[in-house]
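Thread amino acids onto this structure.
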């Protein structure tokens, strides 16, 4: 008969085996150690080895997840509809979602792209790449590029989520029509922030949020003000004349005032293709843009491509989130809330959006000019905290060659990388 000491020596675990088993079965090291202790006690006592738990819950319902893919999309919009289509309970579907076996997806409609649009997107992305070093092509620095775009800001949301005590009464908000909610359009203008070698902010990249408003005299007396008082009114119809006046008399002076002396005065302003926007060769604009030693060229992004503009890509959303933390009651308060949100945003946030812009262009090249890609997430926050956030992004040489081959097949000239034809797109629907 073997002694207790012999048994224990025989049952000594190999060094490091607990860690290996814990990773394999996705449990903690303590769990594996506890099971091993139970086995040793049972062996020493001469009992049959049994490491089953004393308490067992209801066995999980076996469900073939491949059935979900076969269900039409319109029957998968809620947990209730998916449960009905799969003939299992809502709680079972909810557990599948919580366990990660079924993912929740919010689907947004994207702009339609014609074949010509896709080619223009490919040409645009290629034009943003420096090819001075053929073995390691990278995107340009964009330090001399400014993006502009318009956005409506509303006094209040149509639907708003709130967290309240059980005893609190629900707020009662009324409006004659959703169309009557006060709104103001602002023209966002941003460049790429400039940092020193040590990471200090030299320039925050923020030119301004310029609202389309006018000062008018109140014709009648109201409970809020007397007749004859000057009040701020939003301009609801943005015409080419209104936009040109904003660009020449407000945006250009702001750029010249805030532009850092370390950067070149040859600047590119990128806009979308909305109808009220002026062309790059507008005589009045060219005259104003060449003054004071600056050369500020106006260019257009590809049609139907909001994903190729910094403001639409993420900066406007960040401003909207900060603005929604206020409750403005007047147009002036709304403008103040938008301006405060713009000022509060960190230049580090803006710099990360510029980095995302490059990753998006790589995805556009991968899908041959389309917009059917997943927005890339590249752990920018982690890289920034570790001090390894890249200043630019390398582009795969094979991807470039494949893109140029596609353009060559479509245009009949593999060397043609000239300017693309500007088309009017649907970006102007929000200006009227």
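Threaded sequence (432 positions):
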């Amino acid at each position: 008969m073997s002694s207790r000491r012999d048994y224990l020596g025989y049952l000594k675990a190999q060094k490091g085996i607990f860690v290996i088993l814990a990773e394999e079965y996705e449990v903690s090291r303590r769990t594996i150690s506890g099971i091993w202790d139970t086995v040793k006690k049972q062996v020493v006592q001469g009992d049959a080895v049994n490491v089953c738990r004393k308490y067992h819950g209801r066995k999980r319902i076996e469900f073939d997840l491949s059935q979900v893919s076969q269900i039409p999309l319109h029957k998968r919009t809620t947990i209730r509809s998916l449960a009905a289509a799969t003939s299992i309970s809502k709680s079972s579907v909810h557990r599948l979602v919580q366990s990660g076996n079924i993912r929740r997806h919010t689907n947004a409609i994207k702009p339609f792209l014609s074949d010509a649009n896709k080619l223009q997107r490919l040409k645009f992305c290629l034009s943003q790449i420096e090819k001075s070093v053929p073995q390691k092509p990278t995107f340009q620095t964009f330090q001399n590029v400014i993006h502009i775009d318009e956005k409506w800001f509303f006094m209040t949301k149509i639907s708003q989520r709130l967290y309240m005590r059980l005893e609190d009464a629900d707020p009662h908000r009324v409006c004659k029509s959703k169309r009557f909610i006060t709104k103001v359009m602002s023209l966002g203008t941003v460049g790429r922030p400039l940092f020193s070698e040590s990471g200090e902010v030299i320039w925050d990249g923020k030119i301004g949020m310029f609202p389309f408003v006018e000062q008018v005299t109140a014709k009648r007396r109201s409970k809020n003000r007397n007749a004859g008082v000057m009040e701020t009114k939003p301009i609801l119809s943005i015409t080419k004349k209104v936009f040109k006046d904003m660009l020449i008399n407000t945006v250009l002076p702001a750029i010249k005032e805030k532009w850092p002396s370390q950067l070149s005065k040859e600047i590119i302003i990128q806009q979308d293709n909305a109808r009220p926007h002026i062309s790059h060769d507008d005589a009045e604009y060219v005259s104003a843009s060449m003054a004071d030693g600056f050369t500020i060229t106006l260019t257009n992004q590809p049609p139907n491509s909001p994903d190729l503009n910094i403001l639409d890509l993420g900066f406007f959303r960040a401003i909207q989130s900060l603005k929604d933390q206020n409750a403005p009651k007047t147009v002036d308060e709304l403008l103040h809330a938008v301006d405060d949100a713009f000022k509060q945003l960190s230049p580090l946030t803006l710099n990360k959006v510029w980095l995302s812009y490059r990753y998006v262009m790589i995805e556009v090249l991968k899908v041959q000019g389309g917009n059917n890609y997943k927005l890339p997430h590249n752990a920018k926050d982690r890289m920034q905290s570790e001090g390894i956030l890249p200043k630019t992004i390398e582009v795969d040489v094979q991807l470039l060659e494949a893109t140029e081959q596609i353009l060559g097949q479509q245009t009949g000239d593999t060397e043609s990388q000239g300017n693309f034809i500007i088309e009017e797109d649907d970006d102007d629907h929000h200006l009227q």
